[in-house]
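Page 47, continued from p. 46.
Same chain as before, 395 aa.
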Amino acid sequence: MKSFQFSFIFLLFVFFSSPNAQQMARAFTGTYGINYGRIADNIPSPDEVVTLLRAAKIKNVRIYDAEHTVLNAFKGTGLELVVGLPNGLVKDMSTNADHALTWVKDNIKAFLPDTSIVGIAVGNEVLGGSDNELAVALLGAVKNIHNATKELGIDKSVQITTAHSQAVFANSFPPSSCIFKDGVAQLMKPLLEFFSQIQSPFCLNAYPFLAYTYNSDKIDINYALFQKNEGIDDEKTDLHYDNLLDAQIDAAYAALEDAGFKKMEVIITETGWASHGDQNEPAATPNNARTYNYNLRKRLAKRKGTPLRPKRMLKAYIFALFNEDSKPGALSEKNFGLFKADGSISYDIGFPGLKSSSAPSSLLSYKEFQAGMMLGPILSVFAVSASVLLLLLRL
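Result:
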């Protein structure tokens, strides 16, 4: 028996020490990430972006395509990338498995392991949109991309996901009443079934900024900005919410539970606040953007869950790294960046810029945030290991 215990303990140690085991356990290190969009003609080069991200200690990065200059710049940096497959390629990937295999081989496999690519995001906000053919094609594209990673032997380390907007939901207030829309549910359920099989999370783009902009007569801006407020109570669950983002996330959890996927994790793949906007976007100010992103950074550093899922640590990618001057749409769309196009900070929430800035000072301790980001995963591994060892020693 003692020999068995020793052997099992040794195997357990090897498992938790293995880079592959840790990578399989999470495609997201810590709680904080960033979206690196490039719809601009004046932002820093990919090499400069790497310098900026490493100085800010931001390890988790999402990009919206597989631009090779970016993938090459990230080689050997330790920064972990989720690479986007653009919506324009989804239909082709859905109908042609060979094209999916070629795309994964040329844009993912070819850069591993030097560039740490931990995920592929197949499309963005496809369901709930106006293109029904694209929505129907999503599941086939997801399956073909996943099968390609499997054929190339990288499916255990590269996670497949797709991000959804809040347009997929109905009845999102109060959070417990949220369900998937009728026009979305029939496409969403088989997608969720597949993601459940391959252990992928539900990825949500959640913007309290937009919710407040369209409902400023009903929503307290302090509730949207993580400031002191009365909050709201969900009578069905008897839960209290003191900020809008938590309520949006728990609405997603409620919809997942209603669809039969109670155990699926929700990860925020986009959230942010615009610093400038059009006349009908008065909440898009530098002060509000700083307040939201500063308070969100503190919220994530606490490494806690939401009222409905208190033990499920919240993880979020912030939108976005830079202001992007070539984005279409409202002025706010061009002004979500934590950094300006020249690499200086848009406002100070504790990150250094490539250039100096006169943005107002932040109170958040950079070292305190770093410690919070790095300590949690280590403690989690030791806690699980200790629990299993105690059980074994009782045999």
